[in-house]
Amino acid sequence: MSQTPLMPKATAVWLVENTSLTFEQIAEFCKLHPLEVRGIADGEVAAGIKGLDPITSGQLTREELERAAKNPNHQLRLAERKVKVPEIKRTKGPRYTPVSKRQDRPNAILWLLRNHPELKDAQIIRLIGTTKSTIAQIRDRTHWNAQSLTPIDPVSLGLCSQIDLDFEVARAAKDRPAALAEAGSTLLSAEETTAPEPVHAEPQPFADMSRPKREEEAQIDVDSVFAKLKQLKRTDDEDDEG
């Protein structure tokens, strides 16, 4: 028997509106992320979804609900169903997106590309049920509606759950270090960055230009300058007399 209630988001909406359960209790019972439940309470998630009473639908007993309301650490348990409903196995391939939400997918793709560039196209396809060509058009700004797109979190749009998004991001983070190592994008060690410069046996013609002169080398001998000027003036006077 599945441990997830039917219509979990609608059930969460009802529990938020009609009970004093904590976000964690509701999230655990409905198999949602606590941030999703908080978003439902703030009106940012599940807008327009009508709450489903889990008591009248036979998914939860009133005694179980009262027990959880008194003890914040109590986890709700589904009531035994009188009619067994076969589980729907999710097939491999892109996620199905309702027609009413398909117009929001480009905004969700743009949000994912900006906030999680480490995600692969296949992961974005799994999350929101789009196509590789659409992702490429939005990435290259060649989408027909590129100028009007606004990055919006796909979780807030109801295109995927926070759990699925966190799972894909964590998977991408695990694959990313290996990819960087293959590409050679590694940082130098502290020993390499702090090691003294090697001494070159052969003189470098431009070494003096790239190295700042020491203060004693940069100082000008004022007396020698004036002596040379006097010598030049004396020579000019002798030439005039001659």
Automatic annotation (TrEMBL):
Region annotation (Disordered) ranges: 190-222
InterPro entries with a match to the protein in the record: TrcR
Protein name, entry field: DUF1013 domain-containing protein
